[in-house]
Amino acid sequence: MPKPGPGLRLIDVAHRAGVSLATASRALAGREGVSEEVANRVRQVADELGYVANPFARTLAGGASTTVGLIVHQVDDPYFAEIAGGVIGLADEQRLLVQICHSGRDPGHELRQIRHLIAQRAGIIIIAGSGYDDPRAEAEAEAVLSGYQRGGGRVAVIGRHALGADAVLPDNEAGGHAVTAHLLGLGHRRIAVAAGAPGLNTVIDRMAGVASALREHGLSLDDLPVVHTDFVREGGRTATERILAEHPSTTAIIALNDAMAMGVLAMLRERGIGVPTRMSVVGFDDVSVAADLAPSLTTVRLPMIDMGRMALELALEPAGAGPRRRPTGHQLIVRDSTGPAPDQSR
Amino acid sequence: MPKPGPGLRLIDVAHRAGVSLATASRALAGREGVSEEVANRVRQVADELGYVANPFARTLAGGASTTVGLIVHQVDDPYFAEIAGGVIGLADEQRLLVQICHSGRDPGHELRQIRHLIAQRAGIIIIAGSGYDDPRAEAEAEAVLSGYQRGGGRVAVIGRHALGADAVLPDNEAGGHAVTAHLLGLGHRRIAVAAGAPGLNTVIDRMAGVASALREHGLSLDDLPVVHTDFVREGGRTATERILAEHPSTTAIIALNDAMAMGVLAMLRERGIGVPTRMSVVGFDDVSVAADLAPSLTTVRLPMIDMGRMALELALEPAGAGPRRRPTGHQLIVRDSTGPAPDQSR
DNA sequence: CTGAAAGCGCTAACAT
DNA sequence: ATGTTAGCGCTTTCAG
């Protein structure tokens, strides 16, 4: 397709700087064996000419690849959009290019994307999004990735623990605990959970946090309705419908992410159920619109943009002895969608 | 079980199939000049061995690049996230990889990104987002891109007209007209506009639509306050502050995109100004959260996801004689943020 | 410290 | 129809 790029090659820079190809290469790669003086001259000339190495030639010749592959569920999901924004932000600074693909929360498709990225010789692969409770798929992904890592590829994951790679781990359990404790503190006891697919690690972890908070108040998950639907807005709507129909006395709904919470709020609005007067609602993630919803959403803030950056930072460092883990921290953000439990004591 | 073997080269496949390198290359590329029989044998051997071509070698040697570069303002802006989602969706189907970079709405940075993408030998470049009213920057971008296109690169743009490339053109003017006519129809006359930077084509076009609707009602843009701030949420907030302070009798605010509209709504909420009772608000784009805001936002729907797909479709077709243009259509979505003008007859 | 030269794996002219 | 060969632009020995 595209034949000539800028047509500017390393050899041109070399000539212009009055040095050989090899020296120019060394200078720009910051390798040993060039005097500071010459190296600086070369770098300056390269700069002036706006030289950018041809990554294909570079990689083919055995150099490092400068593209990072990023796999997300969907970029047009705000959670992943923010993560992607973080990755791209740091990548820009490092002059790296980011290739984004969608996993669609389908383990098979995700595996295909990983393979594709490897075949394209991405030097770094970042996988964002929940792992699956699907041992076979996970094992295969792990096998492929560990082969890739053995070959020098760097991998970082966001929000999954079982992949033998450096990981950014969102505070899912602690966050689930925080948000549940908040509700319990407001006096709510008839709480329902709008959860995503039960096979997603994220769902499992957040549920664990919910469960532990309940336990501290002498309750158990078994006491409350947990509705598993899709981990997206529409799932929140249908979950709410079910909760309303089957457990009308519910006073609070925990949505396991903000997308679902938006669906929950929408359905409550349609049904004319006041929030938080008759029903409190909490979400999880604090996507940027959470503050603008009707009413503004109480949720757990996860630093998505930073998470993206952190993942790339991890991947940029040389591999350690074992997988590194980097927790994200979290913050309970109380807004207008939660209030005291209505007094329905008798 | 075929496993993509690094170290497995085309020459190995060729030997194994008892043909020459060139023949194997032709067979796998589906090019002319190989008997069906031989071609099939080669393909089968390649399959058995799990051969995957090295894209770097392929591209370096002048083959087609399978990556498409996408430049957006920011992926974590919902408007661009949806466009990106559309591009990636189609790219996935075509087994293409998408490289995303941020322009940050800075002409200089955008130009740098274009150059970077070209240097990376992206076969296709898609630029989403408004052009700038900056002749020098635009001219330079056009020059670089036309060189790229002359070399066989394909370019498609979304929402800018002055780049000599195939374009997807959002119905900015018609949409601006529609939304303004809606307000006028509700009896509003004291209308203010919260606009983005005056140099953005998108802003200019949408304003033109606003102006034409006003004209039909015997009004003119000069009659109303137009506040230019940043084309993002925060800009909507500050614009609203100014409008409230300087034109307290305003009954409706036109925000030139949904992000700004969100800021407008937020500020009105803070000030305790009822929407739509005391103030109507309209946005533009219909990002997916527009329906979930407080109150839900009246806006103009643009098919962002399709726009992304269309752009890639255009780029995938061979270049035409001249630049193709593809309008998007639009749809006025009336929700709860607009109502009749309050009766302040004096 | 620097330069010359040998590939990396593939495509595409050029031969046969 | 098939084979031979010259690069693509870079990194990396290996000489000097």
From TrEMBL, chains A, B:
The keyword Transcription applies. Residues 8-62 form the HTH lacI-type domain. One of its GO terms (molecular function) is DNA-binding transcription factor activity. CDD domains: HTH_LacI (cd01392), PBP1_LacI_sugar_binding-like (cd06267). It comes from the Bacteria. InterPro entries: HTH_LacI (IPR000843), LacI/GalR-like_sensor (IPR046335), Lambda_DNA-bd_dom_sf (IPR010982), Peripla_BP_I (IPR028082). Pfam families: LacI, Peripla_BP_3. Residues 319-346 are annotated as: Disordered. Keywords: DNA-binding, Transcription, Transcription regulation. This is LacI family transcriptional regulator. It comes from Actinoplanes campanulatus.
